[in-house]
TrEMBL record:
This is CoA transferase. The lineage of its organism: Bacteria, Pseudomonadati, Pseudomonadota, Gammaproteobacteria, Cellvibrionales. The keyword Ribosomal protein does not apply. One of its GO terms (molecular function) is CoA-transferase activity. Gene3D superfamilies: Crotonobetainyl-coa:carnitine coa-transferase, domain 1, formyl-coa transferase, domain 3. Coiled coil: none annotated. Keywords: Transferase. Pfam families: CoA_transf_3 (PF02515).
């Protein structure tokens, strides 16, 4: 079955996370992705460990879990971008590509003649995505930055974490590199839109895409940002307490935690019966959604005591029978043995050059006509250098050996 992006070639000049994730998702969708890496060291994220993958003999490889998370369905080609011969290799690939992805600091690739202005003259159909910390404009455009910096500057930390008056309260960063991950989704959307525009326009011209990590973080403030903009008021951090109803939060059970949300009065009546406290449904303090929110500080201790009286499994079963939205607070070992998650095919096992059984987290998109069933292991450093030079660019064996001898690849 043909995948949605078969026939699209992506030149991936990016490193670490946001850019590689864009390329990986395009690869999942069927694009051919050629990843350019620095000879010797490769993508910076290869060293972001431990943990590292162990080979079949139990020895540690150089493949970090971080790198493996963002580089499946790609071909790895090592190129020295500082070498003129290496730059010519990249230009040759760009001439035959549909998409270029890069996340170098502003102006870096222009020094090598690998910026959009240079490459689009060779290939006007090129869609060129640049991901930077602060974007291509503004006084901070040339500054470096990492995920946590943009979580802080973009407001994510301000809306995350427990209230200041609680132990451990205060602005809190996400446990994930959430800005990179969110930015990658904006990047994929932008590339697909630009490809669609190119293929529908009479001249078939590509375009340049400028995406900033900081902009992406601000954009994903969503309703929390809009609530501030229309009210001028900074809403308090709520930790694990939701803002759309009550109860809507995490509760400790005798052996773990669960999360639930009671979103309306019908659910509230069923909820009270499910936990064996039907009298709460008639309590005037909690009878209406607004009153439950206003009296949250009275209601929450009652529910906390109740949930601590039994196990997480017991309460989740009772809540499921009552059709109350709820779920466990899973540790990662519980996530990857969760029956529902496994039934959705969210784990794949592939053969890796260093390991016969490499687990991968699946792409969550499920198409009816073009299922995403391509899962190739993230490449080892330079694994496909000869193949790309010979099969795609048409270099001879002598030319390839000459490039290697000069350090260009």
């Amino acid at each position: 079955m043909t995948l949605p992006l078969e026939g699209i070639r992506v030149l991936d000049l990016s490193r670490v996370l946001a850019g590689p994730l864009v390329a990986q998702m395009l690869g999942d969708l069927g694009a051919e992705v050629i990843k350019i890496e620095k000879p010797g060291d490769g993508d910076d994220s290869r060293s972001y460990g431990p943990p590292f993958l162990h080979d079949t003999a139990g020895a540690r490889t150089r493949e970090s879990g971080f790198y493996l998370s963002a580089n499946r369905n790609k071909r790895s080609l090592t190129v020295n971008l500082g070498s003129e011969s290496g730059q010519e290799v990249v230009r040759a690939i760009a001439k035959q590509s549909d998409v270029v992805i890069e996340n170098f600091r502003v102006g870096t690739l222009a020094k090598f003649g690998l910026d959009y202005d240079s490459l689009s003259k060779l290939n006007p159909r090129l869609v060129y995505l640049s991901i930077t910390g602060y974007g291509q404009t503004g006084r901070m455009a040339h500054r470096p930055g990492y995920d946590a910096i943009f979580q802080a500057a973009g407001g994510h930390m301000a809306v995350s974490g427990a209230p200041d008056n609680l132990p451990g309260g205060g602005p809190t960063r996400s446990g994930l590199s959430i800005v990179d991950i969110l930015t990658s989704h904006y990047g994929v959307t932008a590339v697909l839109a630009a490809l669609s525009h190119r293929d529908r326009s009479p001249e078939g011209k590509g375009q340049y895409i400028d995406i900033a990590l900081l902009d992406s973080m601000v954009a994903t403030l969503s309703h929390r940002g809009m609530q501030y903009l229309i009210s001028g008021k900074i809403s308090p951090r709520r930790g694990n307490v939701g803002g759309g109803g009550s109860p809507s939060q995490a509760f400790h059970c005798s052996d773990g935690q669960l999360v639930l949300t009671v979103g309306n009065n019908t659910q509230w009546l069923r909820f009270c019966d499910a936990i064996g406290e039907p009298q709460l449904a008639n309590d005037e303090r909690f009878a209406a959604p607004t009153s439950r929110i206003e009296n949250r500080e009275l209601l929450t201790p009652l529910l906390e005591e109740k949930f601590m009286s039994n196990t997480k499994a017991y309460w989740l079963d009772a809540l499921e029978k009552a059709d109350i939205p709820s779920g466990p607070v899973n540790e990662l070992d519980e996530v990857f043995r969760d029956e529902q998650i496994l039934s959705r095919g969210m784990l794949k096992s592939v053969k890796h050059p260093e390991s016969a059984d490499l687990p991968l987290i699946s792409n969550p998109i499920q198409f009816s006509e073009t299922p995403l069933d391509r899962y190739e292991a993230p490449p080892t450093l330079g694994e496909h250098t000869d193949m790309v030079l010979k099969d795609i660019l048409g270099y001879t064996d002598d030319q390839i050996e000459s490039l290697k001898a000069s350090g260009a690849v």
